[in-house]
Amino acid sequence: MAGIGSGVELEWSIVFHSLVAAGVTPVAAQKRNPKIQPYGSQIAAQAKAAVEGIKKVYGGKAKKILSTVKHSDELNMNLPPGVPEPKTDVAYMDGTKHIKCSVKMRGPIQLSSAEGRSTATMIERVVDSMSMNGTAKGEIKGIVKDIRDTPTRLLSESNLSRLKKERPELMEEFLSGKSIRKDKNYSIWLKNNKPALLGSFLHFLEKNPTFKIALIGEAMSGKLVFGTRSLASATHILTADKFIGITDSYIKSVSSKVKIDARAKSRGGITSVAFRFDVNA
């Protein structure tokens, strides 16, 4: 389907294969929403494997649980404007209990990729939830301010020709003559700001391992930003290779494998700085 990335295709494919596994016909599944379909063979294979993982965990009651599947687009989350993106992609019901899954493609797991404002909000929620000494709290608050202030409207050289063609009205904002303005150049921002900002953040996490683990848990679940009862906060990670609850033991088991980085995130040719939390496991 045009305009849908592979990650979103996987989410809808999981919905499709969950319904089929529950006894719903493919025609009936697609009638509910045209996005509910298997997609390509590689996506479908991952979706089927994910559904099999759920069946193994829930055994005899899996069919009933799978029949309750909903994509996040079908859930009434009622989130206010300006909040980070929901962590839940696909949800099920086990009686009255929600099984809220953050769906990931096979391979390294991207826990979070958000601009400075959303990343700063996430860190602030973790700070507020913990007992920290004044020195540590002052240090992380300074880092949070710098993260929140990272730019959201930059231009990379690789997007210059695209922007000229698709958004010529923006040339005055981004160009000085034929070159990208220094204050709008992503490469210049990266060189002048990333080493110090990311370095101070990573150094703080190394000195405060308990805070690091709590932050990784929040990047997975979003329970502090959204609340544990919100449909937007996730309770499980769902991939082709695992269906696992976001528990303290799981968070600790992957914490040493998490890589945090600042990367470019482009929409419509305009680049912002995004902070990524990836699990290389």
Fraction of residues in H or I helices: 40-55%
What's the SSE pattern? HHHHEEEEHHHHEEHHHEEHEE
Mean pLDDT: 94
Structural class: alpha+beta
In DSSP terms (H or I, runs of 4 or more residues), the helix count works out at: 12
Please indicate the percent range of residues in DSSP E strands (runs of 2 or more): 15-25%
Q: Which consecutive residue ranges, at least 5 long each, have pLDDT under 50?
A: none
Instruction: Domain count, please report it.
Output: 2
Determine the N-to-C terminus distance. Answer: 30 Å
Describe the biggest sheet?
5 strands, mixed
Question: What is the number of strand segments?
Answer: 10
What characteristic shape results from the CA principal axes? globular
Strand sequence of the main sheet, in spatial order?
1-2-3-7-8
- Rg over alpha carbons: 21 Å
Overview of the structural elements:
This protein has 281 residues and is an alpha+beta fold. It folds into two domains: 6-107, no CATH class; 110-220 and 254-279, no CATH class. It contains twelve helices and ten strands. The protein has helices at 6-21, 26-32, 41-58, 62-66, 116-129, 134-148, 160-166, 171-174, 186-207, 209-221, 223-226, 248-255; strands at residues 70-71, 90-94, 97-103, 109-115, 175-176, 179-180, 236-238, 243-245, 258-267, 270-279. Strands 1-2-3-7-8 form a five-stranded mixed sheet. Strands 4-10-9 form a three-stranded antiparallel sheet. β7 (236-238) and β8 (243-245) form a beta hairpin. α10 (209-221) crosses α12 (248-255). The chain is globular, with a radius of gyration of 21 Å. The mean pLDDT is 94.
